[in-house]
């Protein structure tokens, strides 16, 4: 086997190990929260030595940041009827929360840990602000409008997927969209009060 083939094999094993660690970390953070999750528990779940976790990620904070790297894949306003953007975003966020435990883990941890809260703020501002900027009457208000939208989707996620308030958890998807869609629409496109 040539040196090039050996190097390629090492890179593939390295990528596989990293992916295994991240999958274990996501599950552990979702199950235990940030404070109770440990490097040792993640390593045990991944069936590797804890030193490998440290080698790849440096610290628990580094592991957490990598484990909760999130692309919300938000729909852009192009191709969406302007009056439907709020409803479209609510439906999109609902679909994300329903299938992605990483978001739930991040929300749980963000309530009590500054690094997780910063990560949540970053994800939402980096990805939601451009949508707001594209449609709001005053693009300088995009951060405020994105923050108001985030307050609604995070509140819904908290009551529906984390705290599981019966009234929130039992609502059908269409009902959630009907309730929250107009609110997000107002935040995005209404004139400043």
Q: What's the short version?
A:
This protein is an all-alpha fold. The protein is 76% helix and 0% strand.
Helix-strand blueprint:
Layout: H1 3-36, H2 39-46, H3 50-57, H4 60-67, H5 85-99, H6 101-110, H7 114-135, H8 142-162, H9 166-169, H10 173-189
Helix pairs in contact: 1-2, 1-4, 1-6, 2-3, 3-4, 5-10, 6-7, 7-8, 8-10
Structure description:
With 193 residues, this protein is an all-alpha fold. The protein has 10 helices and no strands. Helix content is 76%, strand content 0%. It has helices at 3-36, 39-46, 50-57, 60-67, 85-99, 101-110, 114-135, 142-162, 166-169, 173-189. The chain is elongated, with a radius of gyration of 20 Å. It has 2 domains: 3-67, Homeodomain-like (Arc Repressor Mutant, subunit A, Orthogonal Bundle), CATH 1.10.10; 82-189, Tetracycline Repressor, domain 2.
Shape descriptor reads elongated
CATH class of the largest domain: Mainly Alpha
Helix amount: over 70%
User: What is the gyration radius calculated from CA atoms?
Assistant: 20 Å
Kindly give the count of domains.
2
Q: What low-confidence regions span 5 or more consecutive residues with pLDDT below 50?
A: none
Could you spell the SSE succession in H and E letters?
Answer: HHHHHHHHHH
Overall mean pLDDT: 87
């Amino acid at each position: 086997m040539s040196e090039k083939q050996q190097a390629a094999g090492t890179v593939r094993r390295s990528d596989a190990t990293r992916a295994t660690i991240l999958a274990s970390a996501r599950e552990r953070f979702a199950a235990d929260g940030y404070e109770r999750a440990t490097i040792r528990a993640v390593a045990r779940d991944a069936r590797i030595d804890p030193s490998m976790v440290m080698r790849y990620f440096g610290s628990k904070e580094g592991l957490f940041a990598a484990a909760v790297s999130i692309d919300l894949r938000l729909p852009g306003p192009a191709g969406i009827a302007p009056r439907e953007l709020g409803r479209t975003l609510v439906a999109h966020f609902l679909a994300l929360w329903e299938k992605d435990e990483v978001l739930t883990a991040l929300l749980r941890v963000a309530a009590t840990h500054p690094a997780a809260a910063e990560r949540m703020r970053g994800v939402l501002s980096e990805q939601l602000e451009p949508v707001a900027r594209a449609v709001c009457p005053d693009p300088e208000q995009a951060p405020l409008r994105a923050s108001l939208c985030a307050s609604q989707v995070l509140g819904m996620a908290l009551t529906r997927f984390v705290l599981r308030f019966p009234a929130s958890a039992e609502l059908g998807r269409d009902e959630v969209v009907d309730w929250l869609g107009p609110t997000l629409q107002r935040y995005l496109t209404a004139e400043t009060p």
